[in-house]
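Input sequence (300 aa), recorded before submission:
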Amino acid sequence: MQVKVVITGSNGLLGQNLVALFSKEKENYKIFGFSRGGNRSGRTDFEYYDIDITDKKKLHQELLKIQPDFIINTAAMTNVDACENDKEGCYELNVNAVEYLATISLEINAHLIHISTDFIFDGEKGCYAEEDAPNPLSYYGETKLLSEQLIQKSTINFTILRTILVYGLVNDMSRSNIVLWVKESLEQEKEISIVDDQYRTPTYVEDLALACKLSIDKKATGIYNITSSELLSIYEIAKEIANAFQLNIKLIKPISTSALNQTAARPVKTGFDLSRTNRVLDFYPKTFKEDLQRFKLKLM
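Predicted structure, token format:
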């Protein structure tokens, strides 16, 4: 019997990767994609629904009809500065829509898998474990923490996967990511300024998609950290990208956070403790350098 999985945000980077991953096992999974507008994935091997998940009535109607076993919520407003400037839109998608999903999941007995972020932390400590105390610095971080809390307060089966700086490439992308932006800028011989006093562990989207599937296959509940295994400054991340794609590293110029003057505050140092992920999901992420080589092969 096929497991029915609804993927919200199925047009996005993670959403398209999830559709591709589950489609390799069509005998085990039946996939339904929810996204706004037309199906941008170029695939026809899943059921696609043009739906805005902030429309509670339509969301309820379609989920009631499908009766999924799992809902993977990849839809979110993730542009940190845009969230600061459009708090109403940010709250609607990052909190209200998640509340709708949790309420409907309880009604239809679906397991909700939700994607969260390192930005729920203030960056004072770094290498955060799942149980560390959150303290978001931005409105984006606040809304993602609120969504986590409302899921945890509900009585549904849930999995929360926290991740950092997701990158990759899919069909007809609506927005770029750090790897593509650095790569394309250097290919065009543009000089770029990269912050050198913020530290992250970037996440290859295929790893995040796999973690979602492992959560289903292993019936894992609770919170898990999903990211690469080595903490780097964003400046070091950019240099790794230049090296991987044999581009001119001299075009990358370091800049401080204070000089950037970004709208929203960012945590200085995040990164995750992956020991629970290793133990429960039996998943051992690699270094960013190793993941870049995997990504490079995909582009060839």
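Checked by second reader. The mean pLDDT is 96.
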